[in-house]
Amino acid sequence: MATWHRLGLRDELLARVPFSVTLERHQIAVFLHERRFTAISNICNHKGGPLCEGRVRGEFVMCPWHGWEYSVVTGKGPAGYDEEQVPSFAVEERQDGVYVQTPPVMPRKLVKHKPSHLLETHSKTPGAPPRVLGISTTAMDEANPRFSTSDALLEHAMAMARELQTDTQLIKLRTLKFQHCEGNYSKASHACTWPCAITERDPEDQLSAVYEGLVHWADVVIISTPIRWGNASSLYYKLAERLNCVQNQITIHNNMLIKRKVAGFIITGGQDNIQAVAGGMLTFWSELGFVFPPFPFIAHSRGWDAEDMQNNVRQVKASAALREASRELVERAVDFWKMLDQNRAMMDRPMERAGRKANPLVNPEDAIV
Ligand code: FES
User: Fold this and answer.
1) What is the rounded CA–CA span in Å between residue 69 and residue 58?
2) Is 190 close to ligand 1, i.e. is its CB under 6 Å away?
3) Tens-place pLDDT, residues 278-287
4) Cα 49 to middle of ligand 1, angstroms
5) Which three-class secondary structure state does DSSP give residue 241?
6) Which CATH superfamily is domain 117-346 in?
7) Whose CA is nearest to atom 1 of ligand 1?
8) What is the position in ligand 1's atom list of the atom closest to the CA of 51?
């Protein structure tokens, strides 16, 4: 049955429009367009973003989360996307104030979009060999490459992985064109989505290869980084920020994308701070869901004042011990993965979330009806 709800006096509403109001089960965004109040659902069709917080240009409001647009008059998307519709509500201005009617005059229409391949199930044939993914995060000019100690040790690790008859894949981040994280998480936890909004929007963004590798393909991941001023490489952090969407799935959907996967690290640098870099990496990759073999990283540094970097390179090149350490790291990681694989049921037991980072939160997508 249609019900009219009084929102307030015109002058009062003018002082705070656009705003949202919940009436019965409807979350309604109220706008002012051409001096008239209009009302559409406050919940974006995409992931439930709050439309009343979006930027208004002419007749259209742009969702503050990922930029979908809707007419503030009809609730439809712009030309070409007008099959998409958020509910629109009748509004009347009467002598005693402004009224909005529920239920909506136009209901929500959700267009089915082709789901990203990252959402598909990628099953692995039982008994297939372990899969080892190497990720190099050092930056350099590919056209004029230099010797990288972290890359060299990663290469030794990958050679060992091949000797162990695993399937291998090596990704050098510097060869991928990918954008910086846009920080949707800073708008709202639910604005950081899986797949990443950049990946969904931009077919040119090449981080899909890493997402595919980490989430669907690999059993074991070995990440290598140089130390740059006491930190991991800039490309490492660029990657880490784009992986927030993987961790965030645990928070917002209790969806662990990384399960029974093992990570190990190779950290090299002319100067020191290995413990801090390793500590940061262990924390981050554990929050993604990775687990670690005994002694999960190998590292090399000659100390704070070792500025003769050419000798650093010579030393790593000549070091049989570091070569062997890289090989043993991958061997430990693969052995550990085999143990996990044999104990799947135990690893898949539900875990208590209290005290962990990923606290459950109310999900606005549940309100998309
Ligand atoms: S564009 Fe609105 S939630 Fe993504």
Assistant:
1) 11
2) no
3) 999 999 999 9
4) 5
5) helix
6) Flavodoxin domain (3.40.50.360)
7) 66
8) 2
Q: What is the pLDDT of residues 196-228, one digit of tens each?
A: 999 999 999 999 999 999 999 999 999 999 999
70 lines ligand 1 (CB under 6 A): no
18 upstream amide cis, omega within 30 of 0:
yes
| 156 within ligand 1 shell (Cβ under 6 A) | no
Q: Which atom of ligand 1 is nearest to the CA of 64?
A: 2
Architecture of domain 3-102: 3-layer Sandwich (2.102)
Confirm or reject: Cβ of 270 under 6 Å from ligand 1.
Answer: no
Q: What percent of the chain has pLDDT over 90?
A: 85
Question: Does ligand 1 come within 6 angstroms of the Cβ of 47?
Answer: yes
Those residues with Cβ within 8 angstroms of residue 63's Cβ, 6 or more apart along the chain or in another chain: 44, 46, 49, 51, 54, 69, 70
* Residue with token string 């998480």: 185
CA 54/CA 63 separation, integer angstroms: 5
Q: Ligand 1, residue 67: give the atom nearest the CA.
A: 1
Query: Both ends of the chain: CA-CA distance in Å?
Result: 18
Identity of residue 222: I
Looking at residues 158-182, what average pLDDT do you find?
A: 98
Tell whether the model's pLDDT for residue 368 goes beyond 80: no
Mean pLDDT of 45-52: 96
Atom of ligand 1 nearest to the CA of 47: 3
Which DSSP symbol is given to 180? P
Q: Where are the domains of the chain?
A: 3-102, 117-346
